[in-house]
Write the C-alpha cells for this entry.
Amino acid sequence: MDPEQPLNRSRAEGSSFVFVNTSGHYGGQRAQLMLPPLKENDTHCVSFLFYRRGSTPPVLNIYIKGSTHWQCSSPVLGRIENNGLLGVPVFNASGPAYHIWKGVELAVSTFWPNYYQVVLEAVSTGQRGAVAIKDITLQGHQCMGAPHFLHIKGVEVNAGQTATFHCTVNGRPQSDLLLYLQGIGGRQAALSDIKPGNSRRYVANFNVENTTKGDSGQYRCIGQSERGVGVSSYAELTVKQPPVPIAPPQLIAVGATYLWIQLNANSINGDGPIIEREVEYRTLSGMLIDTTPVDKPTHKIGHLDPDTEYEISVLLTRSLDGGTGRPGPPLRARTKCAGESGHMIMRMMMVMRMYAPVMLQWNQLSPF
C-alpha cells in the first residue's frame, strides 16, 4: 500500500488535517498542537484520527492538562493545575507506521468549574517521517472505547506507609483495559485489585508503597485500551513526616531512685499535630528499660537503680498509621548514690551527764 494514499484520499475528499513533517529534524525535536481549554458540565468524549508514516515515524504523545483548583482571581475561567506543566503523556503511539487512519477517544472526567486542555505532540525520531491529525470532535456522550472515571479522593499518609487510591470506573471490567495510577511527577502504581460496585461500575485500587515526602503531589487514574484512554481528575497525595524533637529533655531534679525531667519537645522536625508523647529510657549500656506515655510537660521516672547512668529520649506521635517518629536527642543523667538523699527516719540525740564529787565531813556532837 502506498503510504501517501490515506493522505491523498483525505485531500481528494476535501477534508483538512494538521500535518507535521519531521524529516530533516534531529531526534527529540517536538511540535505541539494545543486544543482550546474545555469547560464541560457533563459526560463527554473527545475523539480524533491520526496517521503516521515513515520507516521510523514520529512518536505521537497525548497530554491532558487538568484542573482541580479554583482560582479566586478568575471565577469565570477557573484554573489549569500544575502551573501549566504538561505532566506525563496519557497516550502514546510509537513503533512501526500503520499506513491507515486510526481513531482515538479521550474520556476525561474533569468538569466545570474546572477545565482541561488536550495537547497533541509529535516527537521526531531523527528519521524521515510525518504525523497527521484530523476530525477532532467533542461529543456529548460517553466514549465507546475508553472508560469514564468518577471523582477520586485525596489521600494522606505518614512517610514509609502505603497510600491507597480508590478509582471508581463506569462500566464492567475488561481484559484489554490497562489500568494504572499516574503521578504528576512521573511515579506510577500498578493495579492492586478490583472490587465490584454494582452492575454499572467497579472500583480499581492502587497502592503507592514506601511513600516519601517526594511522592507528595497530584495523582490520577488512567485506563488505556487500543481505542482510547480514560483520565480521571487529579487527587492530592499528602505525605507527612513523623515528628522528632529537636532538643533533648531537660533535667529538673535527681534522686537515688528517680530522675525528674522536662520534655522540652515544643520544637520539632517533621509534621504535627502531636497526639501522643512518650518517654523512653535505657541504661547507658543500651538495655531498654521502658517506654511510658506522658500527658504533662514534666515527668518523674521512678524505680531506678542508685548510682546508674541513663539515657532519656522523647517520642512524639501524629495521627494515622506509622505516625510515631524516631526518638529525639537523648539526655544523659546519673542517679545519686544510696543514702545520699532521702528522708530521716529517726533522729538520734546524745545527752551528756556530768558527775561532780561530794565531800562528806563528820563533826562530833556536844552532849546537852
Notes: The domain at 244-334 is CATH 2.60.40.10 (Immunoglobulin-like). The CA atoms of residues 49 and 103 lie 4 Å apart. The radius of gyration is 39 Å.
